[in-house]
Amino acid sequence: MPELPEVETYVRELTPLLAGRRVGAAQVFWPRTIAAPDVATFQTQIIGQEFATFGRRGKYMLLGLASGATLIVHLRMTGHLQVEPASVTPDKHTHVMLDLDSGERLLFRDARKFGRIWLVDDSAPVLARLGPEPLSDDFSPGGLGALLAGRQAAIKALLLDQTIVAGVGNIYADEALFRAGIHPLRSGGGLTEVEVVRLYAAVCAVLADGIAAAGSSLGVSSIQNYQRPSGAPGSFQEQHRVFQRTGQPCLVCGAPIARIVVAQRSSHFCPHCQK
DNA sequence: ATAAGGCCCTGACCGC
DNA sequence: TGCGGTCAGGGCCTTA
């Protein structure tokens, strides 16, 4: 599942493939993929647009166009965005296809159909609910502590809340809590100042390590798996210490990694190392 | 304001 | 082999 490191990898690797490319015809096979504007308007407005700038906010990909508009893409669970030769035949998971003036096509594929695309003049309303961007100056131990103060919910659930930290998903939340030595069911407001600082550092570290490894690929099949634009996998799964390691020995203490459900999400942790 | 539960989706997997 | 049922889960919406 694409989280911040996976989306960051996408942005970096799509940049040389899309920079300066102009969009021709657009085909939309699953209308709900286009969150805004309506499909007909999207198809009209995307034609002739040129990819110019490339950015990311949380798990949102921001493909800036020379006109000033922005194509925002959220991959959600199983979305893929790939550049392929124009001879490619769209399969049943291809929901949006943009012709490029390079003789290629940009394809949005998504087995679960949760992914969304926006074409907007102003990206701010789409991103308005996002909290601080980790790996930036907007994210700090003090700021994190302030957002957690008074919250009774489990810290695992709060890490998944995009208004607390933008871009953290299930994998990186579990890995960060392990590195910080914090049990996923601890209440957010109950963390000590020292623990908040440790958690802050752990979130930054796992995200940076995830980016360095080009993300985590561990889906059961290629259509569900996160893949880079080239189709290559990331390698951060090789560094997972708890995620999907249920029953395997903790790499620190040897205790079996446990799995519980928190906020309707599977959570993996070491019962011995995480208090 | 916060927390919890439902919803959207379909491939993979399990039991029979 | 095939069928029905269950699970996974990000973000948004509704409910309490």
Topology readout:
Layout: H1 4-18, E1 23-28, E2 34-36, H2 39-46, E3 51-57, E4 60-65, E5 70-74, E6 79-85, E7 94-100, E8 104-110, E9 116-120, H3 124-127, H4 141-148, H5 155-160, H6 170-180, H7 193-212, E10 258-262, E11 265-269
Parallel strand pairs: 2-9
Antiparallel strand pairs: 1-7, 3-4, 4-5, 5-9, 6-8, 7-8, 10-11
The structure holds a DNA duplex (16 and 16 nucleotides).
Structure description:
The protein is α+β, with helices and mostly antiparallel strands and 275 residues long. The chain has two domains: 4-127, MutM-like, N-terminal (N-terminal domain of MutM-like DNA repair proteins), CATH 3.20.190.10; 141-269, Helicase, Ruva Protein, domain 3 (Orthogonal Bundle), CATH 1.10.8. Helix content is 26%, strand content 23%. It contains seven helices and eleven strands. It has helices spanning 4-18, 39-46, 124-127, 141-148, 155-160, 170-180, 193-212; strands spanning 23-28, 34-36, 51-57, 60-65, 70-74, 79-85, 94-100, 104-110, 116-120, 258-262, 265-269. Strands 2-9-5-4-3 form a five-stranded mixed β-sheet, covered by helices on one side. A four-stranded antiparallel β-sheet has the order 1-7-8-6, with helices on one face. It starts with a helix and ends in a 6-residue tail after the last strand. The mean pLDDT is 93. It binds a DNA duplex (16 and 16 nucleotides) through residues 1, 3, 32, 59, 74, 76-78, 110-114, 116, 129, 150-153, 157, 160, 162, 169-170, 220-221, 223-224, 263-266.
